Amino acid sequence: MEKKLRVGILGATGMVGQRFVTLMENHPWFQPVVLAASARSAGQTYEEAVGGRWKMETPMPEYVKNMQVLNIDEIDKIASMVDFVFCALNMPKDQIREVEERYAKAEVPVVSNNSAHRWTPDVPMVVPEINDSHFDVIPFQRKRLGTARGFIAVKPNCSIQSYAPILSAWKKFEPTEAVVSTYQAISGAGKTFKEWPEMMGNIIPFISGEEEKSEQEPLRLWGSIQNGEIVKSDCMKISAQCIRVPVLNGHTATVSLNFRQNPSMEELVEAAESFRGYPQEHSLPSAPKQFIQYLREDDRPQVSKDVNFENGMGISFGRLRKDTIFDWKFVGLSHNTLRGAAGGAVLSAETLVSKGYITAK
């Protein structure tokens, strides 16, 4: 790319916003030119606005420290400065929906980490390796919004990344039902152990709204575009339980499932490890070379050893074995703030650029 696209980050001071900041450092296609947050942070430098709340393992990049934070409500000003924005706002869903639509109607493409628009019928919710074709709904959305450039695209919930890609690789074997338990890191709640010490040595068997997301969002990934809207698939049923565990980064899932076909273990492993999508075929900057890896050791995947596979953008699974009630069972693992959040949104933005939906003004 001859000239980098100008990027804004909405909600830049929060945990996911901070992850976007780190991912944009030296990105070959994108140049962050706007950091925006609430009115209480506006006017401060980014370093001042974040203060002691920097949550990343690596230091704050030098390039952002002295950038002035803008108010997210300065939409016309921000729209004049950027080619598109990432959205990582931490606000009530109705407010996020309103803000994202206002940016889209100001002719700014919005690539969102938020859940507010995941079930808006003409908003694509995409894991680029799985359903990049859903971006084809964007012209219908633009027609509804009355825009030429602006639109909203979102990524799915972080919890499903540890198993939905594997199930996607096995679609040809026709999975029919699955029972899933997710063991979710505290960074998925935007927390560190310093901020949430009561999670040390603790498990909480409830995460608001997560079980419905874990059961329904994979079906939308596997859906189809009909009459300008994305209609979810009815190809299988998923039952989920979601548990918060004392891990900083990394969502683990245990899955038991049935198939219409009768695949062997070798067929399942080969289908998963050879699974590729648009990002691999087009060598996108953030794409993992290998999307899914199978680990043959009995005690893998482990968060401490495997969560950063392919720079946190790959999926690991192991313990594939016959089940006494279902056909097969396995354990999956994904990095929830990289593949599951900001990194997945960056890969979606790269896909949208490659497909021509995001362009320079």
From TrEMBL:
Pfam families in UniProt: Semialdhyde_dh, Semialdhyde_dhC
Q: Which residues form the active site?
A: 158, 251
InterPro entries annotated for this entry? ASADH-related, Asp-semialdehyde_DH_CS, Asp_semi-ald_DH_pep-lack, NAD(P)-bd_dom_sf, Semialdehyde_DH_NAD-bd, Semialdhyde_DH_dimer_dom
- What region holds the Semialdehyde dehydrogenase NAD-binding domain? 6-138
The alphabetized UniProt keywords are: Amino-acid biosynthesis, Methionine biosynthesis, NADP, Oxidoreductase, Threonine biosynthesis
Query: What GO biological process terms does the UniProt entry carry, in alphabetical order?
Result: lysine biosynthetic process via diaminopimelate; methionine biosynthetic process; threonine biosynthetic process
Extract one GO molecular function annotation from the record.
Answer: NADP binding
Q: In which pathway does it act?
A: Amino-acid biosynthesis; L-methionine biosynthesis via de novo pathway; L-homoserine from L-aspartate: step 2/3; Amino-acid biosynthesis; L-threonine biosynthesis; L-threonine from L-aspartate: step 2/5
* Enzyme category, top tier: oxidoreductase
Which Enzyme Commission number(s) are listed? 1.2.1.11
Family as reported in the entry's similarity comment: Belongs to the aspartate-semialdehyde dehydrogenase family.
Protein name, per record: aspartate-semialdehyde dehydrogenase
Biological source species: Bilifractor porci
